[in-house]
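Record type: monomer structure entry
Structure origin: computed from sequence
Chain ID: A
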Amino acid sequence: MNPKILRISLIAALAGFLFGFDTVVISGAEKKLQALWETSDAFHGTVVIGMALFGTVLGAMFGGIPTNKIGRKKTLFWIGVLYTLSALGSALANDPISFGIFRFLGGLGIGASTVAAPTYISEIAPARQRGRLVGLYQFNIVFGILIAFFSNYLLNGIGENDWRWMVGVEAIPAVIYTLFALGLPKSPRWLLTR
């Protein structure tokens, strides 16, 4: 396997890691947030927890638009920006509405990544290695879930605002991914369509 293709695929597949991490990281903080903001079960489930899901659905439905219009590479970069904004904004939020808005942004990143990352990897991969390389994205989703649970376990109880650390720590891999995405080459197939 070409080491350069593997490295490029691993970078793009990190969008899957952030997908898994962002999806699960809320599990460590959600009960604390409900107690802190004294929200009803319906409001808490819809706004605090559910906004990321709504963003994911919209991101998946419309993620093909930027993927085709501005390219796979630029879309992957902006997905990283969405993850970063979501993590930092959620960590700094002081009310459930702003928290929900920032979680929605993360959801848009999740949904768009389900379109852009596998498309990008499949287009840069040789035909005989395509399935294996695209599988890196799926593996990273599960790996991100595992690390999110581990992160929540380590950060639980570190202080009164431990929930801020739980949701904010995602900014570290998100910034790293975003910087790496800047160095990705453009997809050859996308370039052919220009």
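Annotation 1: Residues 52 and 107 are 4 Å apart (CA to CA).
Annotation 2: The chain has a mean pLDDT of 94.
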